[in-house]
Amino acid sequence: MKDTLITAQRKKREILYFGLCLTAAVLVNLGAILYFGTPWYELFTQAGYTLMIAIAFYAIAAVVRLVIHLFRKA
Amino acid sequence: MIQNDQMSRKDFFHRLGNLTAGAAALSLFPWLESCSAQNEKLSQGEKARLGVIGTGSRGMFHLALLLQDPSARIVALCDDYAPHLEEAAALFPRARKYSDYRQLLDDKEVEGVIICTPLSLHAQMTMDAIHSGKHVFCEKAMAHTTESLDRMYNCWKESDRVLMIGQQRHFDPKYIKAMELVHGGAIGQVVGIRNYWYRNNDWRRPVPSPELERRINWRLYHEYSRGLMTELACHQLANGSWAMNGLQPEGVCGTGSILYWKDGREVFDNVSVVYQYPNGVHMTFDSIISNKHFGMGEQILGTEGTIDLVRGILYYEKSPAKSGIRQLLEKIEQGVLSNAAFAGTSWAIEDASADAGIRFAENVTVNDGASTVGAAGDGSAELMHAFCLSVISGKQPVRIVDEAYWATLLALRGDQASRERKYLTI
After folding, report:
1. ipTM of the predicted structure?
2. Do B328 and A28 touch (CB under 8 A)?
3. How close, in Å, is residue B327 to chain A by CA atoms?
4. What are phi and psi for residue B311, nearest 5 degrees?
5. How far apart are CA A7 and CA B39, in angstroms?
6. Where are the alpha helices (DSSP H) in B99-233?
7. What chain B residue is nearest to A37 in terms of C-alpha separation?
């Protein structure tokens, strides 16, 4: 088994992707608060749900990126 | 049971949750004034001198409570059935014994009498006791006919004696709290009252010899009792008047039959009765004594919630609102599932609310219905103590006889409606 090298540029890119996913999840929470008329403090109290949605977005994005990567390679 | 019910004055107020101190509570439940701190103070050190007429199972239940009550002194006992009288005398060896209640009424030392006899004797014994100048505690129901009920009520009304009836729910802290919630608007507008009482036993007591059958199992015979309506419903029907703030039903219809216990009894072993209030609210009473799965229940149904009186639980119609994000996720989930093709019926069970409810009363005791006498913590000890205080003070607890009068009248009219299978006005 050989060592795997993750470059600093790659790390930055993944952090950026996750940040975008987190922002999207926060926007979803914000939209839900506005749509259902629930209290604003849910922006903080529902942080667990927001994080779970962000992880879900990130996972979906990872699958999409993998498919694109495989197409490009082929 | 006696141990659990040991009661000091302090315990009594604690169990009532100091309700008697509140003006709001007293306006809703004015009879609690009889056991106010002021009355307690006035009667401190004094004892009500009591005679008990009828020392069967219910009489012994009350005697056991009075044994623990510092305001009571049992000076006389009466029963025309010797084994019962001897059993009670063993508990109170210094009390004088009588086999005829009129002899007990002539006993000058007796200030108040406790009547625990078959229902058909309640009215006459109460009237005789009042005429003898005694204060009276009479077991519920008040009477077994509407005529004797009216005579008994009028006799008391024209006297200056205390009369209290064995409607122990009026002194049960759990019910008092529940009614505070109802009248405080916790369940919104009252739209229904549901009562049921299910047991699975024949309601019989052992009879040593056949000639005693009707005397001991008097509950089963129409000459002495109105069966499930006067022995069980009478308790639950009082809740309706309480929840409706004194408004009484204007009509009743019902039905009943002897379905399972075909053992020579004359009263129904199952009944269903519906009462209608002038504002359109209905109160139901349903009882079967050949299936006990659902036990007993007394529920006040409101537009915003339901109160389970027996278990001391408040349920809200709408569960607390979920967060926006949870609602969104559920909507997405429902959207996904609704697109899936499911086989089978489009009809689904309308399930009860999933609300777990809020318990507003602690230490709720339950039993399997085998005991037909009474239960610890059901308000009987408080009721009996209040009677002692009233005997000492000579003050009649406000509205309590009227509440009992209506409970009995509703039970009797319900029985009549179920026997005649008619809608009757009340």
Report:
1. 0.84
2. yes
3. 8
4. -95, -5
5. 87
6. 101-105, 119-131, 146-157, 173-183, 213-216, 228
7. B324
